């Protein structure tokens, strides 16, 4: 009887599961091909000092063009790239590309800017990771302090020691470290002690609402926590002036969001920075 019901379940679920698996494998194959053909792009979203309103840097964000003229969301393809291991090669390309673009900005006399680069767990398992980060920085003649690695809480949960050790070595070299999407993962507090952090990124889930409600209290708590730990804080997903004002009053240092600028290709970023400078 047990066997029979098992078989029934199997027959019931099999087509759906197969479809899922096929879809995933198709996506991964396509991603590998497109990456090989240099079709992935890196876009940049400016980051702003809440007090001076100046552009202080940007976050590099992957873009994968799709055949319909749009883009596949990174929320969809980055997990597939992680699952397949492709993120190791893609992430290495991202690091070199981001460093090269920061060098071009410096050469155009836009100096003192910071480039934030997202990093996934599988990259820390790559024995060449630390060296490739250093090489990208050195090859482009950058000050290591201008490169910031963005990691998430979930990254640290997998293999804490591996990540903590790698980050310490990179910190010694000079790069900065930010904890992304803070407050949306698990075990935040214990890792706050172990990780060599420079910045907390307040997730946009907590800046959406500015009236005195739960989100606002959480945003306030994160900003206070950051300040007490000696970390800078940056709020993600700022879409309205009320949100910017609210966070400024809380003592949040920096902001990033559609209100200032959406992620954009490098040439547009150059123009955006140029315009922002002269106005
Ligand atoms: P993230 O690192 O938290 O990046 C911020 C996301 O918020 C970006 O989504 C950005 O476009 C979006 N965003 C910024 N301001 C606003 C706003 O005002 N409103 C709203 N609604 N959204 C805003 P995006 O580009 O789709 O990236 C999603 C995630 O994919 C990133 O989240 C990051 O986790 C991952 N990702 C992107 N690029 C890379 C990469 O090069 N490497 C790795 N490992 N992950 C990446
Ligand atoms: Mg990020
Ligand atoms: Mg984030
Ligand atoms: Mg995220």
From TrEMBL:
The transmembrane segments are none
* Protein origin, superkingdom: Bacteria
- Domain EAL, by residue range, is 24-277
Tell me what this protein is called.
Answer: Putative signaling protein
- Recorded source organism is Paraglaciecola mesophila
Of the intact sequence, the residues represented are 465 to 743 of 743
């Amino acid at each position: 009887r047990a066997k029979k019901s098992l078989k029934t379940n199997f027959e019931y679920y099999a087509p759906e599961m197969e479809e899922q698996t096929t879809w995933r494998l198709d996506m991964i194959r396509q991603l590998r091909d497109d990456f090989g053909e240099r079709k992935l792009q890196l876009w940049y979203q400016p980051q702003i000092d809440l007090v001076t309103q100046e552009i202080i840097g940007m976050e590099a964000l992957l873009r994968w063009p799709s055949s319909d003229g749009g883009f596949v969301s990174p929320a969809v393809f980055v997990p597939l790239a992680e699952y397949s291991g492709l993120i190791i090669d893609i992430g290495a390309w991202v690091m070199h590309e981001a460093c090269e673009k920061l060098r071009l900005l410096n050469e155009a006399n836009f100096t003192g800017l910071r480039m934030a680069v997202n990093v996934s767990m599988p990259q820390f398992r790559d024995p060449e990771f630390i060296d490739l980060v250093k090489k990208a920085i050195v090859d482009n003649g950058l000050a290591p302090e201008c490169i910031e690695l963005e990691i998430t809480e979930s990254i640290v949960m997998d293999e804490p020691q591996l990540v903590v050790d790698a980050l310490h070595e990179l910190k010694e070299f000079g790069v900065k470290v930010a904890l992304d999407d803070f407050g949306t993962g698990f075990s935040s507090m214990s890792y706050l002690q172990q990780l060599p952090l420079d910045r907390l990124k307040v997730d946009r889930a907590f800046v959406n609402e500015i009236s005195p409600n739960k989100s606002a209290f959480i945003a306030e708590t994160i900003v206070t926590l950051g300040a007490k730990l000696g970390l800078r804080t940056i709020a993600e997903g700022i879409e309205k002036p009320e949100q910017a004002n609210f966070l400024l009053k809380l003592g949040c240092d920096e902001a990033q969001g559609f209100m200032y600028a959406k992620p954009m290709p490098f040439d547009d970023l150059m123009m955006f920075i140029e315009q922002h400078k002269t106005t």
